Here is the input.
Amino acid sequence: MFWVCISLFALFLLLSIHPFVTYPLSLMPFRRKRAPAVASPVPTFAICVCAYNEERTIADKARNMIAVAATVPQCELFIYVDGAGDRTLEKLAPFRDRINVVAADIRRGKSHGMNVLVERCSADIVVFTDANVELERNALVEIAPWFGDPEVGCVCGHLVYSNPDESAMASSGSLYWRVEEAIKQLESDAYSVVGADGSLFAIRRSAHHVVPDDIIDDFYVSMMIVADGMRVVRAPKALAFEKSATSTYDEFRRKIRIACQAFNVHRLIWPRIWRKPALAYCYVSHRLLKWLIGYNLLLAGVFLLLALVTVFPAGTVLLGVALLLAAFAILLALGFGPAQKTLAMLLSFAGTSWGVWRSVRGDRFQTWTPTPSARASGQQ
Here is the structure.
């Protein structure tokens, strides 16, 4: 019984760490340094943004879009305002001579808005970014050459969280994202990035798939491009800057929403993915197992306890667990940084697990609400 429990503990622990350890290691033998081709002529661009109640950030976003667009010969600018109830539209009024503003009377969600904007633009390359993200001025210059390769259908930017020192949650999120960006670079060098992030990614307009209103757009669009046989690559110098959530509660809610949306996408695209062995391996390793980390860690813990109970008295094992939890609680109360970051990471995994469960039971997140603690210091 002991060895059975220890074996199951090791299995579920391995499944938990595989996305961050053994999966990246497995990609390394297949890496090859890829340089962007020369895109000639320079493609035309359209930058598309969806906004809801973004009065704190939208004027800065508009100025940033105009500055970025000025670095390439031709770039259309679009902002879809999703039935905002604040002054988002009013803040955009000074920029209407340069930015096409599409205002919706009722909320339909980000995916619907992005579909509308893609339909309205005429550019070769459509660039998606979020309303609270600041793009490096040369982002399009860095993205353009990668589309010189006809096999590339999507290019991801490099997201940097700009406030890692504001809280334990922000620090934990920033560390997690640095690891995520490193794994994406390995995927880009070895095969293809498995899923783009909405902060900054660009696609060939001809490769766009219309997104169902209740499905997350960035993951769905980029994964459909890979399923079509094109590559998603990473442009490491195309930088995007975003403030991370500093509130544990905000980040917990965000993880629930993102995981639920992503798992809903999973059920749509899996029939196409499993037919491609390389894609299936990368997808399961980087995405599916990551969504299930909370469950795998829980099962690993249960089987470890069962293994210990077969060797030591149950009361002794439970006392040991209680002492460990008490020590952890004391460290948290004393403000010990590593303990706070560990709790933040565990809560993120818990939020992801809950989001997967909500997807399984049929929940949908068609609309979204800006994360308050990630915008608290924005422009009023």
In short: Residues 187 and 193 are 5 Å apart (CA to CA).
